[in-house]
Amino acid sequence: MSEGPAATTKPKGVLKWALWGAALLGVAAVLYIIGQASTKPQVHTEATAPAAPAAKTLMSKWSTEAAGAPPPDYAFYDEAGKPVKVADLKGKVVVMNVWATWCAPCKVEMPTLAKLQAAYAGQPVEVVAVSIDSESSAAEARLFIASHDPLKFYHDREMKLPFRMDPPAAGAPTTVVYGKDGREIGRVAGEADWSGAEAKALVDKALAAD
Fold this sequence. Notes:
It contains six helices and eight strands; from the N terminus they run H-H-E-E-E-E-H-E-H-E-H-E-E-H. By secondary structure, it is α/β, with parallel strands linked by helices. It has one domain (58-208): Glutaredoxin. A six-stranded mixed beta sheet has the order 1-8-7-4-5-6. It has a two-stranded antiparallel ribbon with strand order 2-3. A hairpin with a 5-residue loop joins strand 7 and strand 8.
């Protein structure tokens, strides 16, 4: 008679452990799925892929707010240390770029300015890249320009050119295009590609103007 209760409790114990085992397997499966979802790279289809930001073109940054204004009556210095003003280059289309070695976008766009100057070799077009670096960084700036032939080195020792422009430069880089009459045509604040068709169209139009 004493074997009856023991016989009835044994299946209950087995059933209990079976239920616990099933529960643990379920939890493990859920954790595995979550882990896979967090580590597996997300693949975008053409329909779900996020749209890439549209690149800003030179003309999207082009401003004619100061068109017709004379250049600043302010001297910077050429490679030989001779003072130069934009007005001294009257008769040429001048692309004046204000830059510095501490300005990453300035250094990125400099090769495009070198290409622009090379494209107009022998024509009255002068790309004037004016460094606003301090005297202690002037040597580095000079070497950087030397690596971007045919650009010449110009230095604003007093670092005041951006503030003498009208309106003042919004920051670096800022590039101003002056016509052969010495008057501003327009400007770009920020990095731009000066080696493309847009820049060429601007320069060609300035060259063709009386």
